[in-house]
Amino acid sequence: MSFAHTNRALRCRARQNRVPQAAVVCSNQQLIPTTRAILWGVTGTRQYLLERIDDVAVVQVYADGFTSLPLEHKILVWHLYLAALAGRDIFYDQRHRLNLEIRDLLEAILRHEAHVDPAVLAEVRRYTKLFWINTGPFNNLTARKFVLNLTREQLLAAVHAAAREGATFASTPEALVDRLSPMLFDPSFDAVVTNKTPGGDRDILEASSNNLYVGVRMSDLANFHERYGLNSRLVKRDGHLAEEVYRVGGRYDREIRAIIGHLKNAIPYAPPGLAASLRASIDFYRTGEEAERTAYDIAWVSDQDSPVDTINGFVEVYMDPRGVKGSWEALVYIVNEEKTRKIETLAANAQWFEDHMPFEPRFRKSNVLGITAKAIEVVFETGDSGPLTPIGINLPNEQKIREQYGSKSVSLFNINEAYEESTPEGMRTEFSWTPEEAARAKKWGAFALEVTTEIHEVIGHGSGRMADGVGSPHLMLKEQYSAIEETRADLIALYFVADPTLADLGIVGAEDHAALIQTAFEYYARNALVQLRRIREGTTIEEDHMRNRQMIVAWLIAHTRAIEVRKCDGKTYYVMTDAAAFRQGVGRLLAEVQRIKSEGDYEAARALFDAYGIHFDPALRDEVVARVDALHLPSYTAIVMPRLMARSRDGEIVDVEISYPCDLETQMLDFSTFARSADALATPAASR
Predict the structure, then answer these.
(1) What is the pLDDT of residues 547-588, one digit of tens each?
(2) pLDDT of 66-112, one tens digit each?
(3) Could you tell me if residue 206 is inside a domain?
(4) DSSP 585-631
(5) Within a 10 A sphere around the Cβ of 248, how many other Cβ atoms?
(6) Is the four-CA dihedral 35, 127, 130, 106 of positive or negative sign?
(7) Helix (H) or strand (E) holding 13
(8) Whether residue 311 sits in one domain with residue 210
(9) Which of 290, 330, 243 is nearest to 472 (CA)?
(10) Which residue among 204, 229, 249 closes a domain?
(11) Residue 320 and residue 419 in contact, taking contact as beta carbons nearer than 8 Å
């Protein structure tokens, strides 16, 4: 069969897969009329895909293991859940100084919608859902702002209509709309939340619209000693820099006090290791000092046995163009022991992987310590982790702590499950060169992604060491650090997924390993092309994970015979043609990327990404966008979380129930109601 016939066959098969309108039962037993797009995300009677907002898919995530927890652990999860909710507004404020005002305005209209013009209301609802998903008006992947497709007069009329229905606002509708209009309507005003490549002589801090810096340029930092790098906002006042520290008595005092209250309530129900971690977290929230943060990281990574765990604090630095300031996030999760066995095998053999890294021995650890790994079910995520969520996590980020105390990795298997169950078939077939490639993606894609993600988190981020005498890599590599680190972990995953040792360890079956390798390499090549659908304007990539994926594939195309760029019927395909060459090329690139990190070679990092990772052909992007839009394929996915409810009797919690809202708007409005409640933040309730 010719390649042209192959792709026509794929398109014909996709057309034949259309299904009629039907109805599905959500987990809350509400009957929801739906269409073909919804049925893509239904397995039996369990609904995953809930709706589409523009190019975003919204899916429900399930935490089946929660119901089998003993009551003590359910109560523990409940208090950690409240602690996570209590800090949600911190990340909103970090993303943009007007975020909370805009959210209050939009939600007031939705709560008092009776007399709002239907067409205006529909646009407010569309924009608000995107606002919730991205924690503000910036696309989380492209960093660029999206706008409200209304006029000032239409929005003002909606605000007046909501006010007549009882909505209250901090100022007059006219003053409020005038103050927020530039953010809502002008695409050039505060256009990019994080801008690491603004072009020309523009300063990366001034070109970024987030709320981590006020009036500060990079040149201001030359002789400034930053005491609270991770957990402060840096402000220039009267020509002097000041750190507004995130701690009790400092910035976000109200939210942090509430978080501490809920964490304290959790401690009596926590196993010893987790209780120690929670106490250390409270100490850090109180003082904001580096010593307490280090103590917390050590306590958290040392807790290897708790069946319930949480991450709550200022963690990832992707939003900061300097790569220093931590974004607030919270996760609450439970360990799945059955699925953990495979990932623990990787952790138990971390020294073998370290010894066989394809980079210089001086950059390897001679004694790998404290590498632990778990497969988890997420119960709740917010801040920088939700509604847009990672699929794997490896912490702590501090290189010295990794080298001395190890790291802890978690694979979010119920998130992966929700993604896989809601993925439309066209996502596999449209960009596959042959039916065989598409069939492999369907059969092995989920498992290949699971294995490579686990290697990425457990072995990748936990590996390697700095060269003697070289300081912290994030300070040496500056804005390039996050992309270099994600590249390094991806390359390690791609290198070792093809190693026969995986079969020897029982992680993959020997008879299936070749198919798994081919699927993993094909997916990675294909994904570098498909990810362009997410960048619908501009010609540069800002998000670090996307930069790393493009850089790896573009480098392999330029320097190996592993991937060919092919055309058929006016469509572009990235075709993985030689698995051996792919792995060999990955090893060569990994050796250089590890050297860059270990030596803190900023100029080499910048040159590598400038050549391969940042820029793309807009004509190719437009082609990809047209192809995915023709098939109604999403660009990215947001999740709706489970909902918890505590039941009490005589002041004591007697049960904690879990349910699944299957509705983004309901959940987001509930969360905001919680955040606005002074009682909820000041005095943790027994039930809500």
Answers:
(1) 999 999 999 999 999 999 999 999 999 999 999 999 999 999
(2) 999 999 999 999 999 999 999 999 999 999 999 999 999 999 999 99
(3) yes
(4) HHHHHHHHHHHHHHHT-HHHHHHHHHHHTSB--HHHHHHHHHHHHHT
(5) 17
(6) negative
(7) helix 3-16
(8) no
(9) 290
(10) 249
(11) no
Q: 410: helix, coil or strand?
A: strand
Residues 13 and 114 in one domain: no
Shared domain check, 488 and 397: yes
Evaluate if residue 687 carries a pLDDT over 60.
Answer: no
Same domain membership, residue 506 and residue 359? yes
Looking at 249, 281, 315, the residue that finishes a domain is: 249
CB hemisphere CA count around 68 (13 angstroms): 9
480's tokens: 């390039």
Q: Is residue 82 a part of any domain in this protein? A: no
Residue 416 in any domain: the answer is: yes
How many CB atoms lie under 10 A from the CB of residue 218?
15
Same domain flag for 418 and 551? yes
Which is nearest to 101 in space by CA: 85, 89, 110? 89
* Beta strand residue intervals within 512-596, DSSP E: 563-568, 571-576
pLDDT digits (tens, 9 = 90+) for 142-166: 999 999 999 999 999 999 999 999 9
The residue type found at 206 is E
The Cα–Cα gap between 334 and 274 comes to 12
Contact in structure between 228 and 284 (CB atoms under 8 Å): no
Whether 38 and 94 share a structural domain: no
Distances from the Cα of 501 to the Cα of 71, 94, 459, 495, 583, angstroms: 41, 44, 14, 12, 15
d(CA 620, CA 482): 26
Task: Answer for the pair 8, 434: CB distance below 8 angstroms, yes or no.
Answer: no
Tell me the C-alpha distance between 592 and 554, whole Å.
15
579 lies in the same domain as 446: yes
CA distance 206 to 466: 31
Q: What angle do CA 300, 302, 305 make, to 5 degrees?
A: 95
Task: Decide if 432 contacts 526 (C-beta within 8 A).
Answer: yes
pLDDT at residue 491 greater than cutoff 70: yes
Pairing of strands 49-53, 56-60: antiparallel
> What token pair was written down for 493?
């995953």
Residue 556 to residues 370, 486, 496, 579: CA-CA distances in angstroms? 33, 17, 17, 12
Q: Could you give the CA distance from residue 478 to residue 602 in angstroms, rounded to a whole number?
A: 7
- pTM (two decimals): 0.85
Question: Containing domain of residue 403, as a range?
Answer: 307-638
Is-contact 162 112, C-beta < 8 A?
yes
Residue 93 forms part of a structural domain = yes
AA letter at 507: I
Q: Rounded to an integer, what distance in angstroms lies between the CA atom of residue 179 and that of residue 169?
A: 13
Query: Quick one: 378 and 489 in the same domain?
Result: yes
How many domains does one find in the chain? 3
> Which helix (H) or strand (E) segment is 234 a member of?
strand 232-237
**What is the C-alpha to C-alpha distance for residues 639 and 582, in angstroms, rounded to an integer?**
34
